[in-house]
Write a structure and sequence with these properties.
Number of domains of chain B: 2
CATH topology of the largest domain in chain B: Monooxygenase
CATH class of the largest domain in chain B: Mainly Alpha
Largest interface: A-B, 47 and 38 residues
Helix content of chain A: 25-40%
Strand content of chain B: under 5%
Largest sheet of chain A: 6 strands, mixed
Radius of gyration of chain B: 20 Å
CATH superfamily of the largest domain in chain B: HscB, C-terminal domain
CATH superfamily of the largest domain in chain A: ATPase, nucleotide binding domain
Order of helices and strands of chain B: HHHHHHH
Number of strands of chain A: 27
Largest sheet of chain B: none
Distance between the termini of chain B: 46 Å
CATH architecture of the largest domain in chain A: 2-Layer Sandwich
Oligomer: heterodimer
Chain lengths: 617, 163
């Protein structure tokens, strides 16, 4: 590793380096990785033939295969070949219908376990294998270690699914700059490519998920107005509709995993052929049963009518939430391989009475947008663009009678913090269970349970006298944290939790350690390098801040910060990880109020700058 | 720095505000201080931008909605107390509810009803603006806000039935 350079204090900071960052579309069926190369977002090739990595992992005693190599084993070794892990991630066994999976699934303490010949695997580990492959593809393509990645998730993913996806990234050794929503990423790719402005609908039907988002695009700002969707609806279901039809007509054994896997593959072929042809003729023998069938476009449409209706209903709901009518929409962006189906295109076109935007490859557009956003976040790009996204689902807590009290309504712009007061039910009550749920239904049982924790040490009072303030906070990744405190007495009972879904931080750490077979020495030098980079960033930023905004500080404040800054610069020379960390922490603490003042100044500047512009007009 | 939302967005503390200016200033602030602008910054700056950006979002939602805006102005001037609506309005409320249930399935009558209720909405908005911006009569304004809140909910129900 090259030696890190440090400029002399007070002198100009290091010239800004181009940071190696990527965008990842972690799909149900296929995954892609992209990066901004010489100013334009580019899909990176997985191998010579393709830039799509099938999201399939095969486990055996000798190897873990990812992508096409695993796909080839799908019908030969279905029990050890895991596809569509995205449909399982962040879920519990009770959330799914096991008949829809040709895998051996089991309950694994909050996560779903998949039984393979080499032991239990969970969807987070499977996803991490796919991410690792994408990471190494990117490092090979871009010629070095990555600074970070923007990873996309379905807009309609709940908190558990987002957190699990982030865990998978960590397990794969990726630094997540941001999780962003797939339709939003697509809008970035389209909006910047076409310089579009106005109200846009992004209709995103992937392999296993469906999202619809409504955005307002203006110069430098993409605002999500509303999002809706179905995290259990995608191309797979269209295949399944054909499989069901064949099962009914030809009486295949529904429990025979091999036959069903074969039928699934056949169904997908039929569906894909119907995207370019009006008619497909099938003559095939599966387990002694002869299939002779002619599928027409019309017939297919009848089989999947119910699925199409579900996408249209969600689209209409999103319009209502955005308070817009069909005729106020300036463009419809079609995303996801499943939007290639003519019956989908026709239905969406009919709903809006408008031509669709589908000239960017629907498989690639999400990854391209993610790469652009990664570039912006890393500060590489010239592009001036800010994304404002929303919470897809309402968040609340359980109250008496298993009724949900909403704290943050769906489609609230992020980041958000909202609080509500609750009280005790019984005289002398000293503890309270806070049960956090997500969803739109009134009853707790109909919503997704995210976390349950107990607030203790409430001072005993008569029923209804205690005031428990519960605060929900959702960050720009769409991830929730919850805190609760009793506010009437000085004795503050409070607790803060991030919901956890099966994988504890400790467990991730153990999995991380076993997945990187790094020698102890390597690990230490890697850790030191990371600490140094972090310190250098802070030094640069602090120097710059002191240069431009020193008038916000009194002389003694300035000197205190300068002293800690110098100490941090000194500590780097020591190459002592703990010492650098300590100095870093100290400088951070010392400059906290300085950072707040600078933020206020930015706000003032943003507004005054604008009113001056106005005067000129 | 503690500032109220009107100060944050550089607007006069009034019920009648320039909504376009609010939106413009909100966007200008977010472009400057949103956490995405600090993705690679120090811990302090990330935390501060998160706090400010959250405030800007809450402030924007508060000032954008007439009812939330009115309630917010009241909260700056008087302590919140429980309000009982006058009996004549309660009667009116029941009448409207009954009428709505009777015509729920009839879209032409619903449309007509919607325009009546819309007029009421405008009427009370105007009244609130006089009570707050001109008379500074916080107690009367509090009652009008509660009425407007009911009217807004009814409009929402009508719109849902229509779509």
């Amino acid at each position: 590793m090259a030696l890190l350079q440090i400029s002399e204090p007070g002198k100009s900071t290091m010239p800004h380096e181009h940071r190696r960052v990527i965008g990842i579309d972690l799909g149900t069926t296929n995954s892609l990785v992209a990066s901004v190369v010489s100013g334009s977002p580019t899909i990176l090739n997985i191998n010579d033939n393709s830039n799509l990595l099938p999201s399939i992992v095969h486990y055996s005693k000798d190897s873990v295969l990812v992508g096409n190599d695993a796909k080839n084993l799908l019908s030969k070794d279905p029990k050890n070949t895991i596809s569509s892990a995205k449909r399982l991630i962040g879920k519990r066994i009770s959330d799914i219908n096991q008949d829809h999976f040709s895998l051996n699934l089991a309950d694994g303490d909050g996560v779903i376990n998949i039984k393979t010949s080499i032991g239990m695997k969970n969807p987070i580990e499977v996803s991490a294998e796919i991410l690792k492959t994408l990471k190494s593809v990117a490092e090979k393509n871009l010629g070095g270690e990555l600074m970070g990645a923007v990873v996309t998730v379905p807009a309609y993913f709940d908190d558990a699914q987002r957190q699990a996806t982030k865990d998978a990234c960590e397990l794969a050794g990726l630094n997540v700059l941001r999780l962003i929503n797939e339709p939003t990423a697509a809008a970035v790719a389209y909006g910047l490519d076409k310089k579009s402005m106005g109200h846009f609908v992004v209709f995103d039907l992937g392999g296993g998920t469906f999202d619809v988002s409504i955005l307002n695009l203006s110069k430098g700002l993409f605002e999500v107005l509303a999002t809706h969707g179905d995290a259990n609806l995608g191309g797979d279901d269209f295949d399944q509709a054909i499989v069901n039809f064949l099962n009914d007509k030809y009486q295949f054994k529904v429990k025979d995993i091999e036959v069903q896997t074969f039928l699934s593959i056949l169904a997908r072929e039929i569906k894909e052929s119907l995207s370019t042809k009006n008619e497909v003729v099938i003559e095939k023998k599966i387990s002694d049963i002869e299939i002779k069938e002619t599928f027409t476009q019309e017939q297919f449409k009848i089989l999947v009518q119910g699925l199409i209706e579900r996408t249209l209903k969600a689209t209409k709901s999103a319009l209502i939430d955005a308070q817009l009518n069909n005729d106020q929409i300036d463009g419809i962006i079609m995303v996801g391989g499943s939007t290639r189906m003519p019956c989908i295109q026709e239905s969406v076109k009919n709903l809006f009475k408008k031509e669709l935007l589908n000239d960017l490859n629907p498989d690639e557009v999400v990854a391209l947008g993610a790469a652009t956003q990664a570039n912006i976040l890393a500060g590489n790009g010239e592009e001036d663009l800010l994304l404002l996204d929303v919470t897809p689902l309402s968040l609340g807590i359980e109250t008496m009678g298993s009724i949900v009290e909403r704290i943050i309504p769906r489609n609230t712009t992020l980041p958000v913090a909202m609080a509500q007061e609750f009280t005790t039910y019984k005289d002398g009550q000293t503890a309270m269970i806070i049960h956090v749920v997500q969803g739109e239904r009134e009853l707790v049982d109909d919503c997704r349970s995210l976390a349950k924790f107990t607030l203790k040490k409430i001072p005993p009072m008569v029923a209804g006298a205690a005031k428990i303030k519960v605060t929900f906070q959702v960050d720009t990744d769409g991830l929730l944290s919850v805190s609760a405190e009793e506010t009437t007495t000085n004795a503050k009972a409070s607790i803060e939790v991030k919901p956890s879904y099966g994988l504890s931080e400790d467990k991730i750490k153990t999995m991380l350690q076993s997945s990187f077979d790094l020698a102890e020495e390597d690990k230490n030098s890697r850790m030191l390098a990371e600490t140094k980079i972090e310190a250098i960033q802070l030094i640069e930023l602090t120097q710059k801040a002191l240069d431009t905004d020193n008038d916000l500080l009194s002389e003694s404040e300035f000197n205190s910060i300068k002293k800690d800054l110098d100490a941090l610069i000194d500590s780097i020379k020591s190459s002592n990880n703990d010492k650098i960390k300590e100095a870093n922490k100290k400088l951070n603490a010392q400059s906290e109020s300085f950072a707040a003042k600078r933020m206020d100044r930015s706000i003032q500047k943003a507004l005054t700058g604008k009113s001056i512009n106005k005067l000129e007009f | 720095m503690t500032q109220n939302y009107f100060e944050l967005f550089n607007l006069p503390e009034k019920f009648q505000i320039d909504l376009e200016m609010l939106q413009e200033n909100y966007r200008a602030i977010q472009k400057e201080i949103h956490p995405d602008r600090f993705a690679t910054s120090s811990g302090n700056e990330r935390v501060q931008s998160m706090i400010k950006s959250t405030q800007a979002n809450d402030g924007y939602q508060t000032l954008k909605s007439p009812i939330k805006r009115a309630k917010y102005i009241l909260s700056l001037h008087k302590s919140v107390e429980r309000i009982t609506l006058p009996p004549d309005f309660l009667m009116q409320q029941m009448e409207w509810e009954e009428h709505f249930e009777a015509i729920e399935k009839n879209s032409s009558e619903l449309t007509e009803f919607k325009s009546t209720i819309n007029k009421k909405y405008e009427e009370y908005s105007l009244l609130i603006s006089t009570q707050i911006d001109h008379d500074h009569n916080w107690s009367d304004a509090a009652i009008s806000i509660d009425k407007l809140y009911f009217i807004e909910k009814l409009l929402h129900k009508i719109n849902n039935a229509l779509s």
